[in-house]
Amino acid sequence: MSEVLVRLEKVTKVYRLGEVEVPALRGVDLAVERGHSLALMGRSGSGKSTLLHILGLLDRATTGRVLWDGQDVTGFRADRLAELRGRHIGFVFQTFNLVPTLTAWENVELPLVFLGVPGRERRGRAQAILEQLGLGQRLRHGPHQLSGGEQQRVAIARALAPNPDLILADEPTGNLDSASGQEILKLLSDLHRQGRTLVMVTHDAEAAQIAERVLRLRDGMIAEGAP
Ligand SMILES: Nc1ncnc2c1ncn2[C@@H]1O[C@H](COP(=O)(O)OP(=O)(O)OP(=O)(O)O)[C@@H](O)[C@H]1O
Ligand SMILES: [Mg+2]
């Protein structure tokens, strides 16, 4: 086990839209240590989501290296990256991204289906996590029957189901009223205190305070607070 859970070395990202090249990251060096928490801030378009997606092995760097738990995964095939992601990384998005036709319970089970966890165990684990997050009375509700804050808690339960090492959250409170936002921040900071590694993108300086370290991106580069 490496002290550094995920490390980016000189990472760049250029999106190509036909003839046009959009540079989103211009050489980012970043080490996310196991058990630490980090907030990413910066203007719209500064590259925060792009950086989060590369940290989470959801997208590839254009140049540079990505090391997961000490291992260079830059050239890994898509299926090996998906496997690492499925076991070790949980994502939480601003828009919750729950499957609208499934219940809360089934949404939380879903990542465990992909990991091949048998049905009974899957249902038990999903239920236990939902109960821990205060949603024991909402197991059979669909996303449209839940408030925004409840939907985000289901999304966090889903992210937690595989027992991941790393939680990545992209503006997790961006679509919530301030009371529900506070609840979600409390939940994320509790998870971090229980030992999970957390990287959260936020526009809100107050939200960023739950993290041990705050990094600011500017035009695809880390602007301050760099190690
Ligand atoms: N799939 C894509 N194709 C082309 N360009 C993209 C794509 N995704 C992002 N970009 C561009 O890359 C740059 C960084 O985008 P990114 O989404 O990482 O910013 P962000 O900091 O998360 O912004 P926001 O705060 O608005 O979410 C922007 O200029 C954006 O237009
Ligand atoms: Mg973004």
List the helices and strands and how they pair.
Layout: E1 4-17, E2 20-33, E3 37-41, H1 48-55, E4 63-68, E5 71-72, H2 78-88, E6 89-93, H3 104-114, H4 119-132, H5 148-160, E7 166-170, H6 178-193, E8 197-201, H7 205-208, E9 213-218, E10 221-224
Parallel strand pairs: 3-8, 3-9, 6-7, 7-8
Antiparallel strand pairs: 1-2, 1-4, 4-5, 9-10
Magnesium ion (MG) is lined by residues 48-49, 170.
Describe the protein in words:
The protein has helices spanning 48-55, 78-88, 104-114, 119-132, 148-160, 178-193, 205-208; strands at 4-17, 20-33, 37-41, 63-68, 71-72, 89-93, 166-170, 197-201, 213-218, 221-224. With 227 residues, the chain is α/β, with parallel strands linked by helices. The strands form 2 sheets. The protein has a 6-stranded mixed β-sheet, with helices on both faces. Helix 5 runs parallel beside helix 6 (178-193). The longest helix is centred in the C-terminal third of the chain and has 16 residues, at 178-193. The mean pLDDT is 95. It binds adenosine-5'-triphosphate and magnesium ion. Residues 15, 17, 22, 24, 42, 44-50 line the site of adenosine-5'-triphosphate (ATP). Magnesium ion binds next to helix 1.
List its salient traits.
227 residues; alpha/beta; Rossmann fold; 6-stranded mixed sheet; 29% strand; binds magnesium ion
